[in-house]
Amino acid sequence: MNLLPSGICFYLSVAMCWLTSEVDASWWYMGTLGSQVMCDNIPGLVTKQRQLCRQHPRVMQVIGAGMEDWVEECRHQFRAHRWNCATVARDHRLFGRVLLRSSREAAFVHAVSSAGVVYALARACSSGRLDSCSCDPSKKGPSADGHGAFSWGGCSDHLEHAVRFSQAFVDAKERAERDARALINLHNNRAGRKAVKRYMTLECKCHGVSGSCSLRTCWQALADFRLTGDHLRRRYNGAVQVAVDQYGGGFTAAHAHFKRPGKNDLVYFEDSPDYCVRNHESGSLGTGGRACNRTSRGSGGCEVMCCGRGYDTSRVSRTAKCECKFHWCCAVRCQDCPLQVDLHTCKGQT
Questions:
Q1: Are residues 119 and 265 in the same domain?
Q2: In DSSP terms, which residues pair with 341 in a beta bridge?
Q3: Tens digit of each residue's pLDDT (9 = 90 or more) over 285-301
Q4: Do residue 276 and residue 144 come from a single domain?
Q5: Minimal CA–CA distance to 167: which of 177, 155, 178, 159?
Q6: Domains identified in the chain, total number
Q7: Which of 76, 99, 70, 75 is closest to 85 using CA atoms?
C-alpha cells in the first residue's frame, strides 16, 4: 500500500505522512495488528508517535482528513505573497523544503498545523466521530458571564482534550531532538494551539416567556478557523528573530532593539530566501507566471511580486453576475455576463 499518495507527505516537525482519501482507508479498521503494521511503516515518526498512532488509529484518520483545512488556510493567507505555500513538484513534503530551515514561513507552518490538529480533534470529539472523547465534560451545572447567570448545556467543543493529544503527538519529535531548532518549533507549535483557544466563543440559547431570555443555556464552541489563520498571519508579520542561549534551554531576541518574544508570538532564527526565483535547495518555486495586481503597492503588487523583473499583460474572458433583480419574495436573480479583463503575470527569470 502506497504511503505517499500523490506525493503528499506532510513532513512537519513530526514527519506526519497522512494517508489521504486516495488510499484505501480500510486499514484503519483492520484491528491492532493492521494499525501496528501501518504505523511502523510511516517514515520519520519517533517512538512516542508510533505508540500513539497504534493506540489511536481513528484519531490519526481524523487529523489526516482535517489536513486539507489548514493547508487551504495557509494558501489563503499567503495568496498574495511570494511564498504561497506551494511546493516544488515531486517534493513529498507537503510544505516542501521550507521546513528545513527555521524561517518565518516555517514558524507559520508549524503554528497553523498545530492549530489545525487541535481544531480537527476538538470538532471530531463534539460531533461524536471519536469513541475516545465527546463533549467537554467539565461544562456542567450553573455558571455566569458578563450578561448574568446561565446553565451549561448543549455540547461544548472539548478543546482541552484536543490540546493534550496535539501536544503529546505533534511535540514528541521536538522533545526527542532537544536542539535549537526543536526549541523554536515547540514554541511555535504552542503558539498555534493558543491561537485556537483565543477564539473559543460562548454560544447561548434563550429560554423564557416570549423569548425573554430569563434563562440561558450556553456552550463553548470553536470559532471559524479563518480567525485563527488571520491571527497567525498577523503574528507572522510581527515574528521575532531570536538567538538561542549558550545552554540551549531558552532564547531571546536576536537584536537588542527587538522586543522579547511572548508566548503568543511566532519566532525564527534563520532569514528567509526572497522566493523570487526557482531554487530547489530552498524550495522556492519563484514568482514567474504568478498573477499580480498592477495598481497595488503591497506584497501582491506587480513590482513586489515580480521582484523587479516586470510583467506581461494579456486580455482574458471572464463571466460576472450582472443585471441582478430582486423578485418578490425572496430571491435575487442575475445573469452571467461576459467580461474582458486584463491579467498581469510576472515575467520569469532570464
A1: yes
A2: 316
A3: 899 999 999 999 999 99
A4: yes
A5: 159
A6: 2
A7: 75
